[in-house]
Amino acid sequence: MKKILLFVIFSSFLFSTEPIEYGWDIPHTPLRVGGYIDALYDKSIEEKFLFEDLSLLLSANQNRFDFLSEIEISHFNLDGKSHGSADIDPNFERLQLMYTIDDTHAIKVGRFNSDVDFWNQAPVNILQETTTVPHITRSLYPKATTGISYIKTFNDEDKFSITFQNNRDIGDEYADWVVADKHISLAYHGVNDEFLWSLASGFYREEKSQHEAYYAGVGVEYEYKEGVFQAELFTQKGEEGLSKPYSAYLESTWNFSKRQNIVMRLEAYDDEELATEEVVSLLGYVYRPFSNLALKGEYVHHSDLPLNRFVASFSVMF
Amino acid sequence: MIKILLSFIFGTLLMAQELLVVGDAGFPVENLTKEEIKSIFLDKKRFIDGKKVLAMNYEYNHPLRLCFERTILEKSEQSLERYWRKAYYNGKRPPKVVTSVEMLLSYFENVHPTIGYVDANETVDKGLKVLYKGECP
């Protein structure tokens, strides 16, 4: 297994000469196959070094249909065990089919990332500037929806979506984020040159606890020559003692050279379920020697929880 | 001194490379806005008049591609890398890459509708439809 992993990692370097080409086209089919790998070093977890995600992406565009699947093995350690078990159980992170009715209307079915906030549209290590994730992304809304979504696009850029789920989730049973069996959401993403904004609101019922909650939030992102600024604010109202009155973060990435970034994140949240109201600050460094590879190191400071630590990661997309 | 400066400025303007965004002879529309071209090349817009459009690009570091990315897409290399990483994760694909103008012209002849861009000074008239005119700084 280790040999296969090493082969995949080193062969992915071959893609580095062309910064925006990923994956392989399967001859005589509309299919393209690729994936990504994240390796993590975190002193706060039992196994300090592990492969957080080993993921295979399979996509196809045929006329008005777009198929996408993301099959993943998570928490895979050097002994070849996933979640502490030798039985490797791949999980469908996404399994979706989209039909584009015309330039402005589309319908998506299957399991897909919930159309809520910026972070959740690209919730994997290689696509973000930090290894750790803000509180918002794990606790305020279901990360994935197994259902149907209608998408309306305006001016090729702005996008409105309405999503509906009323069935079990087909995803990961080990998930450490919200897994719902009922989810309704409305979202709007606006684009104005380099300025992006988003609004989202919804209702969900958690699958295991049957806990119900409403959430709403707003996000902004501004990309400028020297970096990217991103901020999001969400609130969630659930049953007595389980709400998250607020969760917000400001993240600023400074491209101090073509391949190196400094990232700072300031986060604050109030989580009644965790009985925690705290501020989390982060200072990190990102080195992307090639467009498909990232090496990250960050120090995370929590004002309340005993989670102050250094986290490092290696991630590659192929 | 002023004369030297003026002649330098005008000389530079005369040397500016003109970039033409072109479609095949049967392309469904007569012209496109810069925003529409941007959407097509970023795989945000795939259909024009109900027809799926094939977008063509040059190889990475091709001077015309660098000009196109700067003047039409208005994105830096770093910004494009960030965009395409996320887009690929979401199932989008970048334009098809050709290695020469001849290869591009062959796509124009055989696949419809196709959109690409050429250097106005070098490309002979092949019955292509000029959809937008830009200029490399």
Show the helix and strand layout.
The complex is a heterodimer of chains A (318) and B (137).
Chain A lengths: L1 H11 L11 E2 L5 E12 L6 E14 L2 E12 L14 E12 L2 E9 L21 H5 L4 E11 L3 E9 L13 E13 L2 E12 L5 E13 L2 E12 L5 E14 L2 E12 L4 E15 L2 E10 L6 E9 L1
Antiparallel strand pairs in A: 1-2, 2-3, 2-17, 3-4, 4-5, 5-6, 6-7, 7-8, 8-9, 9-10, 10-11, 11-12, 12-13, 13-14, 14-15, 15-16, 16-17
Chain B lengths: L1 H14 L1 E7 L10 H8 L5 E2 L2 E2 L1 E5 L4 H9 L5 H13 L6 E3 L2 H10 L3 E6 L9 E8 L1
Parallel strand pairs in B: 4-5, 4-6
Antiparallel strand pairs in B: 1-6, 1-7, 2-3
Brief sketch in words of this structure:
The complex is a heterodimer of chains A (318) and B (137). Chain A has 318 residues and is mainly beta. Chain A contains two helices and 17 strands.
Describe this structure in words.
Chain A has 318 residues and is mainly beta. Chain A contains two helices and 17 strands. Chain A has a single domain (2-317), classed as Porin, CATH 2.40.160. Chain A is globular, with a radius of gyration of 19 Å. The two termini of chain A are 18 Å apart. In chain A, 38% of the residues are buried. Chain B has 137 residues and is an alpha/beta fold. Chain B contains five helices and seven strands. Chain B has helices spanning 2-15, 34-41, 63-71, 77-89, 101-110; strands spanning 17-23, 47-48, 51-52, 54-58, 96-98, 114-119, 129-136. In chain B, strands 5-4-6-1-7 form a five-stranded mixed β-sheet, with helices on both faces. Chain B is globular and about 35 Å long. The two termini of chain B are 24 Å apart. Mean pLDDT of chain B is 85; it is low at 5-14. At the A-B interface, strand 2, strand 3, strand 4 and strand 5 of A face helix 2, strand 2 and helix 4 of B.
